[in-house]
Amino acid sequence: MSLIPKTVITKYMGGNKLTAYGLALGMAPFFTVCSCTMIPLFTSVLYSGAGIGPAISFLLLAPSSNILAVLLTGELSWELA
User: Fold this and answer.
1) CB proximity list for 40: less than 8 A, separation 6 or greater
2) How many CB atoms lie within 10 A of CB 37?
3) Each residue of 23-72: pLDDT tens digit?
4) The dihedral of CA 55, 45, 36, 77: what is its sign?
5) Cα Rg for the chain, rounded, in angstroms?
6) Residue 7 CA to chain centroid, in angstroms?
7) 66 neighbors 37 (Cβ within 8 angstroms)
8) Where are the alpha helices (DSSP H) in the chain?
9) pTM of the full predicted structure?
10) Distance (Å, rounded) from C-alpha 60 to C-alpha 52?
11) C-beta of residue 16 within 8 angstroms of C-beta of residue 50
């Protein structure tokens, strides 16, 4: 999160709830990471000034809904998914 200034995170993810949750849910599928990588990302987003709600929704959504996970689950079988 050092590439994104703290003021930007505080402005968008710490202010208006609709904007904060929308941003957290909108950018989570584009992070192709596992759960072990999400803990440091979660703490950096949280300590940068984001609200606890958007940070937790980002933490829970990113590993399960990234594009690679959805495609690989679909390749196994939709009945299994």
Assistant:
1) none
2) 13
3) 777 777 777 677 777 788 888 878 878 888 888 888 888 877 777 777 77
4) positive
5) 14
6) 18
7) no
8) 6-13, 17-27, 35-47, 52-65, 67-76
9) 0.64
10) 12
11) no
